[in-house]
Design a protein that fits this description.
Tumour Suppressor Smad4; alpha+beta; 2 domains; 30% helix; Rossmann fold; six-stranded antiparallel beta sheet
Length: 325
């Protein structure tokens, strides 16, 4: 039995520089079982192999897309029977939202050392549970993909703008995200349309089952089960008796609404008090309808088309390892 099984994706952007250090570290520790995949579709075979060594913890070393694929296969594949190991995520990738929510930041090797210490000395006090977002078309035979953070509406256009226009410049991640945010906000406030700015979001209809719907053009649509939210926001004032693990925040595509939301985010108040044009709630099922309207779930792109909505539900709680005390 290995204390820790490490699943690495060498093609992840962060691993281009990191992987030699990871390999060297694993070579020095006999209680780590390290498995590398070259393609996402090899993750199923990787988990079948990892299950044979019965690890105490499964560590994922890759970007958010790698984490999404691994969680989907871990949940649907049944490789560990009814008792899958808790999952830890190294801080590796462009956004690291899942790793940050689980208390992993800074040097990935330091985080891996911390996971090993926890596996050796006792996991119980470090186990936390998170429901996962299950994305499908709502069909009875569809196999949902699983993740923890979904962006839609204008947020998708900002994310794609950052991915295709800003990241190739080779700037630090934090600076790239700041430039993207400034460009997106300026495009909304001043109505500027140019090839070098994020596109204008397509109209959407978003329905929270049993709680009504909202329709229009939105600067931001966010659904998550993470505890640390984008823009320091919160879905904390959902109506009593109408809560669920899916936290949703929608910001309407209006200049003053975006400015007020930005100010609230700076002071850590976004979603904590009612704000005109900002919709926050919690629920169990969300439907996103639109014509060729895209969403991104943990780095992967999906599209809602006319008559074929995106349906979001949630899984039962899944165990994770939180590295912070």
């Amino acid at each position: 039995m290995a204390s820790v099984a490490l699943l690495s994706n060498p093609r992840s952007t962060g691993n281009r520089a990191l992987l030699p250090r990871v390999r060297s570290f694993c070579a020095q520790h006999s209680d780590i079982f390290h498995y590398e995949v070259e393609q996402i579709d090899q993750i199923g075979e990787a988990l079948r192999t990892i299950a044979r060594v019965e690890p105490k913890v499964l560590v994922i070393n890759g970007g958010d897309g790698t984490v999404q694929a691994a969680l989907t296969e871990l949940y649907h594949g049944g490789h560990f029977g009814s008792n899958p190991p808790p999952v830890a995520v190294l801080p590796n990738g462009k956004t690291n939202l899942i790793a940050l929510d689980l208390g992993a930041s800074g040097d990935p090797i330091v985080a891996l050392e911390r996971v090993m210490d926890i596996a050796r000395t006792g996991l119980a006090e470090h186990i936390v549970v998170r429901e996962l977002i299950a994305l499908s078309d709502g069909g009875a035979n569809s196999r949902p993909v699983l993740g923890m953070f979904l962006g839609g509406a204008g947020l998708v256009d900002w994310m794609l703008f950052c991915r295709h226009k800003i990241y190739p410049l080779g700037l630090p991640n934090g600076f790239s995200h700041l430039i993207t945010a400034i460009a997106g906000v300026m495009a909304v406030i001043f109505g500027i349309r140019a090839a070098f700015l994020p596109q204008r979001p397509r109209p959407l209809k978003v329905s929270l089952v049993r709680q009504g719907q909202v329709q229009g053009s939105f600067a931001l649509l966010m659904v998550t089960t993470l505890h640390r939210l984008l823009l320091r926001g919160s879905a904390g004032h959902a109506p009593a008796g109408k809560s669920g693990p899916l936290q949703i925040m929608i910001i309407e595509q209006r200049p003053m609404t975006v400015l007020r939301a930005l100010a609230a985010a700076i002071f850590g108040r976004l979603g904590r008090h009612r704000l005109s044009g900002v919709h926050v709630a919690r629920g169990d099922e969300i439907r996103i309808e639109g014509d060729r309207s895209s969403v991104i779930l943990d780095g992967e792109l999906y599209q809602a088309n006319a008559g074929r909505p995106i349906v979001l539900t949630h899984t039962p709680p899944v165990p994770f390892v939180r590295l912070a005390a």
